[in-house]
Amino acid sequence: QGGLDTALLRRQFPILERQVKGKPLVYLDNAATTQKPQPVIDALVEYYSGYNANIHRGIHTLAEEATAAFERTRDTVKEFINSACREEIIFTRGATEGINLVAYTWGRQHIRAGDEIIVSTMEHHSNIVPWQILCEEKNAVLKVIPINENGELLMEDFEKLLTEKTRLVAMVHVSNALGTVNPVKEIIAKAHAVGAAVLVDGSQSAVHLDIDVQDLDCDFFVFSGHKVYGPTGSGAVYGKLSLLESMPVFHGGGEMIKEVRFEKSTWADLPYKYEAGTPNIADIIALKAALDFVTDTGKERIRQHENELLALATSALEQIPGVRIIGKAAEKVSVLSFVVDKVHPQDLGILLDNRGIAVRTGHHCAQPLMDFFGIPGTTRASFAMYNTKAEVEALAAGLEKAIKLLA
Ligand code: PMP
Fold it and tell me: Which residues contact 264 (CB under 8 A, 6 or more apart)?
């Protein structure tokens, strides 16, 4: 298995041909959302121009075709994260909706006054706020695993936080702001030992790492399709079958019912019990094209390529005076956050954009993490399968020029 042919690969992503401010686009904001390859765009167009119909209820041909395509994505997601059965895959609009689904169903069912939920310092707001809302409602307690200066979890402190009161550990697999890969398998085993359930936020891991929910033994795993080269408005929750079967419903409406009577209604079987209303049919259908694209390209080859870019970018940035990298975990994916002495990230972002270079600046929806580092935000470059060494060099050169202007 050779390396990635990025020139060939880039031809599959039409947006990469465009110019920004008269310069070729250098897209380094992949942790926010990835660009979409032609098969994903084609899948959207084919659905809307060929077989647009509502799913599950129709007996006509278009409805049957749309239903079959929609359900094929479920099988692909099942394979992609290696769940035991397709009924464990619930479609959502993304990770945020997935975490809220678990908070409002499992959370309402299991969390009582005095119970404890553990998150980490490096969580995205979407894996903090739903638990805060739940804790407030139930008089439960939110506890936070501290991290070190490299942006790694302090595992001994985690073990001290685990008690017989711990009901849930909600943990990001890979930090969007730092790139840290957390030892979730170990965390899950330790949490299970005290009887706590574990939700893994796979928003950043699904695209970079091989995911095996059975091997991890997590109770829930959520991710967003748009960060895995798929459409916005697509995502999934994996939940263990026994949990999904016994949890109360989330949204009420069509699709999620067996029978509706004014006296009492009954719920549909899994997975439809949690899929009320008309979903993002086209986006879910096209998600299959995205996951197939990643699998066919080869996750291991993609990872090797991205890691090379990360290593190159890290050493290039370390040589620029005034640049300080935030997040130096031993295990990282291709996310590079940094601050520059006397320079505001936003100013840096604007100057880089003037050179066609797209990076993200700000708190990355991780304000408590920024507080820990004592900074308002960072500038973040995040690399995907289609990025090149030349683009990393463009970033470093652009950064040097911008710093000369700003510092
Ligand atoms: N968790 C993490 C770690 C993320 O990076 C993101 C997206 N930035 C989310 C959750 C939320 O994902 P979405 O906005 O797609 O629902």
Answer: none
* pLDDT per position as a tens digit, 320-332: 999 999 999 999 9
User: Using an 8 Å Cβ cutoff, are 273 and 243 in contact?
Assistant: no
User: Is residue 296 exposed (0-12), middle (13-18) or buried (19+ Cβ within 10 Å)?
Assistant: exposed
Which of 267, 295, 323 is where one domain is finished? 295
Question: Which among 244, 264, 295 is the end of a domain?
Answer: 295
Name the residue with the closest Cα to ligand 1, atom 12.
95
CATH number of the domain within which 306 lies:
3.90.1150.10
Ligand 1 centroid vs 283 CA: distance in angstroms?
17
Residues with CB under 6 A from ligand 1: 94-96, 124, 126-127, 172, 176, 201, 203-204, 224, 365
Nearest-atom number in ligand 1 for the CA of 123 is: 3
Residue 1 has pLDDT above 80, yes or no: no
Q: Is 218 a catalytic residue?
A: no
Report pLDDT for 81. 98
In the structure encoding, which two tokens stand for residue 244, read together? 């999904």
pLDDT digit string, tens, across residues 222-269: 999 999 999 999 999 999 999 999 999 999 999 999 999 999 999 999
What's the complex ipTM?
A: 0.99
Closest-CA residue, ligand 1 atom 5, reads 176
